[in-house]
Amino acid sequence: MSKAEMSERLTKAAMGIEPGLPLETSGGDLDALQRDVQRLFDIEAIKQLKHAYFRCIDTANFDELETLFHPEISVHFVGGFYEWRCEGREEFMANQRKSFHKRAVGHHNGHQPEIQIQSEREATGLWYLADHMWILEHQFYTTGTALYADRYVKEDGRWWIRETKYRRIYEISRSLEENPPFSAHYLANEGSEPATD
Description:
- The protein has helices spanning 3-7, 30-58, 62-66, 89-99, 187-190, and strands at residues 69-78, 83-87, 104-117, 122-135, 140-155, 158-175.
- A 6-stranded mixed beta sheet has the order 2-1-6-5-4-3.
- By secondary structure, it is of the alpha+beta class.
């Protein structure tokens, strides 16, 4: 993200989110009503898609996670000390497998979705992220919030995440003197093997 992009306010316009179709009844015939109801179903399907994303990363459910992304997914994440971009589902999934391993603990929640249906096949969404991430082998902890801006496409009767990006609102990253005494650590059993240097 360029300095100009970084200095932009976090508004819908600056994040590339345009107004969608109005959330009101068309006032037409039965076909129009069916289209109105379909838009509501589409909004719910997109919410479930993004909620599944957060669940799957924190549980290292990589098989299901892969089914949520369009093959040509575009990713751009900007944090306090990092900026990461990738193109394509294969590259994105390789990164997720490296991040959510047996020596990591993740807690990612997406809140307050603002879904804009652009057409029968396209939509956008804003999500408010709150997260915690521990990398136990490095005794390192990151927490913060961010705004996600997503683009979705509907192909073969289902919605896919086509583009996802976020920019941090705040981030705190620090080394720990010792790791927390987790009484449960799901990824210890279900996460991928940590990368070796």
